[in-house]
Amino acid sequence: MDQEHFSEFAALREQAERMLRLGEWSLRLEILPSFADSVVVGLHRSGWDLRVVERRWDRAADAEKFRSPVERMKHPRVLTPTLQERAVPTDKAGARQIRALLGEAAMPLRTSSEVLGLDGTRYSIIVSESMHSAHVSWWESFPAEWLPVMRAFGSMWKELEGRLGAPSTPRRFPWNT
Question: Would you say residue 115 has pLDDT above 80?
């Protein structure tokens, strides 16, 4: 990939991540790897409708458009990220049940971890309730002090995916090994 296409693909990735996050979420879990599909799953509100939603950026499909200069010319000048979405309705009781998996997970705001990395996977949990919200992100080399929140992330991910129709292979997280 030449520099111009590399820059264009980086911008497409940023656009995909913005589009994955669109809308009003009361709970959003994110997995954003460097070289695989980015996935967001959570509780999404649209008007009065509350749904369990999974959005996925098909990175491979979009990367294929940059395989060669000739391949790039076969596609529109301005690309839109290839996103897939699955959703099922839920109610307030179902949402409470999912959010309860976060429980009383506590963590310090500072860690002793000093991590530096370029490639890898970033994880995030975003919780919004009424006028309050919290956003916590960590890299795959995670701070041990945050394990209670990361374990809650894994439990909520499993529950949300189950409500959407379980994937054929369960996801394994680095902190569960």
Answer: no
